[in-house]
Specification:
The structure is a homodimer. Chain A has 2 domains: about 140 residues, Aspartate Aminotransferase, domain 1, CATH 3.90.1150; about 240 residues, Type I PLP-dependent aspartate aminotransferase-like (Major domain) (Aspartate Aminotransferase, domain 2). In chain A, about 45% of the residues lie in helices and about 10% in strands. In chain A, the strands form 3 sheets. In chain A, strands 2-8-7-6-5-3-4 form a 7-stranded mixed sheet, with helices on both faces. In chain A, strands 9-10-13-12 form a 4-stranded antiparallel sheet. In chain A, strands 1-11 form a two-stranded parallel sheet. The radius of gyration of chain A is 22 Å and the shape is globular. Chain A starts with 10 loop residues before the first helix and ends with a helix. The mean pLDDT of chain A is about 95. At the A-B interface, helix 1, helix 3, helix 4, helix 6 and helix 7 of A face helix 1, helix 3, helix 4, helix 6 and helix 7 of B.
Chain lengths: ~400, ~400
C-alpha cells in the first residue's frame, strides 16, 4: 500500500512549497543561456589560493586539525567570534563575543530568528518587494505580513518585528537613505517592534562608503547593544565564499543565548573546519579584497544600467543600485514576469527571476529581478538587448490588442 | 531602557532550555578530570592524512574548488548521494538518489523531521531513556510523549510517530533484538505510525555483524522504499568525523521532496566543500576503517564493564553494550545523578551525564550515562574505581540514615 504522506505532514510541512528561484538555478547549467537569475558570486573572485593555503596550514598541525574535525560549541569558534567583534567595531558597532552566534550563512540566522520570535498570530513587516529567503525561512512560523512603509506613518503599527536590508537590497538593489533609516527606527520605537537588519551585500558598495547601519544608529541612540532593538545578520557568502555556509548574528545577549540553544537543537554547531578556515581567511585576506569585488561587479552594474537605458522600450522603469548584485525592473501594467520568462528562455535564451516571488502579499506581476554579478559586461549587454527586444515585441502586441 | 526580551519570544523560544550535557562538555577542558560525559569520538581515529590529501586534491583543481566554494543544491552534492545509495545497498536497503537528502549531521535530520511531521497536538513515542538530541530537536514543535513500549501491547496507540535507535542506543548502549524490531514495526503498522530510525552508532559494532535495520525489515515486508513507513537517519559523525556536520536522511520520495524544501528554507544547503570532502573520503577510506574504530573502542568498553563489575557496590546495575559509546548505570533508589555528579567532580574528579536528561517524561533520577569512547582503558578503570568508591560511600551514608 502506498502511504498518503501529505496527510501526515505538520501545518508547516504542508505550507512548505517549491521556490521559483530554485527551479531557475537549474537553468544556469545550460551554457547557451544568458542568466540574470541567481544572485551568485563570480567564482573567479573566490580567494582560492588563500583557502587552499589555510586548509593546508590547518591540516599540517595535528592538534589544530583534530580540533577542526571534532565537535565544537554551538555559539561558534571563539577566535572567529573575536574577529567578528573587531569587524563589527570597524562598522561602528561595539559588542562582545557574547553578542555573537555563528550560523550556517545568514539564511540560518533568519530561520532561527523566525523560530525564536514568531508565534502563529504574529505580524511581520517587510518591504515590497522583500528578500525571498526571509519569506521562505519564516514560512515555518506562518506569520501574517504587513508593509514596512506603514512604520513611518503617524500611527503605531501592531506587529512583532520588521525586516529590512538597508544596503543594496535583494531584490530591488535599493539603499535606504539616512533619513529613511532614522524614520524606520523611530517607527520601530513608536510601535515597540524589533528590527532584523540583513547586511548580506554590505561589502559590495560600488560608489562610496556605506551609510551607518540600523544597529549603529540604534546603539547611538540607546547607548548600548544590550538596549538595542536591532538584530544584525551578517554573512561571508558575498564577501568571501558562499559554499562553506558561514554567517553570524549580532544582538543583545539574552537573544544570543536563546539562539545558541536553538542552534544546538537544530544542528549542534556550524562546521568547525569551516569556521576555523574563515577565521584564518579574515586574518589573511588583504584589505583591498572588497575593492577587488567592487572593481569586478561595478562595470557589470554599469553595463546593465546602460543597456537597460538603451534597449528597454518606453514604460519600463528600473533601479540604479549603488552596489550589490541586483537591478529591479518594472514593466508596463499587463505584463506577467513568469509568462515573460518562459518566452525569454524559449525565444531569446535569457533568464531572470519573475518579481512576484519577492512579495509577501499581493505580488506585482509586472516585475523582474536581474542579477549582474555572474555575467561579463558584453554578455550583459547582449542579454539585455535580447530581453529589451522581446519586451518591445510583447508590448507592441499588447498595444495592438488593446486598440483592436 | 533595557528591553524585556523574554516577553517577545515565541512559544518555542520560551521552551528552549539549556542542556545539562552542553554545560558538562565544558568540563572536558579541565585536564585532571576523568570525563565519561560527552559522546565524543577519539580524534586519534580521524582519518586526518586522508582529509588533508582530499582537501589538497580539491584545491589543486580550479573547477572543482570553485564548485566546492560556491552555492549548491539543497538536496545535496550528487556524487555523495550516489555513494550513499551504494552504502545503503550494502546495508540491505535499495533506494535511489531521490530518496536521499543531505543534512548537517543527523541532528539537523531530526530537527527537519520534527518540523515536517509534528504539529502542536501530536504525540511521539520514545524509549525510556531516549536520545537527548531528539528531545531538543522536537522541542521546536512541542509534542507530547509516550513510551514506545506501548506499541508492542495489544491495543493500537494514538500517536504520530515513533523514534528508535536500534543499535547501541545513546544513552543506554542497548541493541534491539530481531524480535523486538519486528514487534516495533508490527506495532507501528497496527497503529499506523511513522518510525524514525537513528543509526548514528551502527559502524561501531564490536562483537559481530549488525542485525537488519528497521528500514530493511520494513521494505522486505512492504516491497519498496516508497511504501515504507520508516525514515532512516545516518551520519558521518561517528564513522568518519563529526566536525564537518554531514549526515543524511533516507525516506520515500514525497518525504525527501518536502525535506529538501525545508532544508532550503533553513540554511540553503550543507557546506559544498564538506560534502565533496566526504564523498572523496567515502571513496578512499580503507574498508577496514570501521575495524580500526572497533578495535580502539572495544577494549574501552571491556575495561569499563570489567571495572563496573569490580568496583560498583551491590544494588548498582549497568548495561553491557555490543558497540557504540555508552554504558547506562542504574543506582539504588534514592540516588540523584545530578547531586552525585556535583560530588563526583568535587571529590573524585570524575564526570558523567546524569540520566534524568534522557527522559521525555518522569525522569528516573537514579541513573547515569557513562561514555567510554574518549578515554584510555587504564584511565577508565581508575575513573570507575573512584566513582564506585563515591557511590559506596553515599550508599552507606543513605543506609545508615535509613536505619537511624
Amino acid at each position: 500500500m502506498v502511504m498518503d504522506w501529505s496527510e501526515r505532514f505538520s501545518p508547516y510541512g504542508r505550507r512548505a512549497k517549491a521556490s521559483e528561484i530554485r527551479e531557475l538555478l537549474k537553468l544556469l547549467d545550460q551554457p547557451d543561456i544568458i542568466s540574470f537569475a541567481g544572485g551568485i558570486p563570480d567564482p573567479k573572485l573566490f580567494p582560492r589560493q588563500l583557502m587552499a593555503d589555510v586548509h593546508a596550514e590547518i591540516f599540517a598541525d595535528e592538534a589544530l586539525s583534530n580540533q577542526a574535525l571534532q565537535y565544537s560549541v554551538s555559539e561558534g569558534y571563539g577566535p572567529l567570534r573575536d574577529l567578528l567583534v573587531a569587524e563589527m567595531k570597524s562598522l561602528g558597532i561595539t559588542c562582545t563575543k557574547d553578542n555573537i552566534v555563528i550560523t550556517n550563512g545568514s539564511q540560518q540566522g533568519l530561520d532561527l530568528l523566525g523560530r525564536l520570535f514568531i508565534g502563529p498570530d504574529d505580524k511581520v513587516l517587510v518591504a515590497r518587494p522583500t528578500y525571498l529567503g526571509l519569506l521562505q525561512a519564516f514560512t515555518a512560523s506562518g506569520p501574517t505580513y504587513g508593509d514596512i512603509a506603514a512604520l513611518t506613518g503617524p500611527a503605531p503599527v501592531r506587529a512583532k518585528l520588521a525586516y529590512a536590508m538597508p544596503d543594496f537590497q535583494n531584490p530591488s538593489g535599493e539603499t535606504m537613505t539616512l533619513a529613511e533609516r532614522e524614520a524606520l527606527l523611530e517607527g520601530a520605537r513608536r510601535s515597540d517592534l524589533m528590527v532584523i537588519e540583513d547586511t548580506a551585500y554590505n561589502k559590495l558598495s560600488f560608489d562610496g562608503p556605506l551609510l551607518p547601519s540600523l544597529m549603529e544608529l540604534d546603539i547611538a541612540r540607546e547607548g548600548d547593544i544590550e538596549n538595542s532593538r536591532v538584530i544584525y545578520c551578517g554573512t561571508f557568502s558575498k564577501s568571501v565564499v558562499p559554499g562553506l555556509r558561514v554567517g553570524w548574528i549580532v544582538a543583545a545577549t539574552p537573544i544570543v543565548q536563546k539562539l545558541v540553544l536553538m542552534k544546538q537543537a537544530s544542528d549542534l554547531h556550524t562546521s568547525t573546519l569551516a569556521q576555523m578556515t574563515l577565521a584564518k581567511v579574515m586574518e589573511c585576506l588583504p584589505a583591498h579584497h572588497a575593492d577587488t569585488l567592487c572593481d569586478t561587479y561595478r562595470p557589470r552594474r554599469d553595463a546593465m544600467v546602460q543597456a537597460l537605458e538603451e534597449f528597454m522600450p518606453e514604460g519600463v522603469t528600473f533601479t540604479r543600485p549603488g552596489g550589490g548584485m541586483f537591478i529591479w525592473v518594472e514593466l508596463p501594467e499587463g505584463f506577467d514576469g513568469a509568462a515573460l520568462l518562459a518566452r525569454a528562455i524559449a525565444e531569446e535564451r535569457v533568464a531572470f527571476v519573475p518579481g512576484s516571488a519577492f512579495y509577501a502579499t499581493q505580488p506585482k506581476l509586472n516585475t523582474l529581478r536581474l542579477s549582474f554579478s555572474a555575467t561579463a559586461p558584453e554578455k550583459i549587454r547582449e542579454g539585455i538587448r535580447r530581453l529589451g527586444a522581446l519586451i518591445a515585441r510583447e508590448h507592441n502586441g499588447m498595444s495592438r490588442a488593446a486598440t483592436a
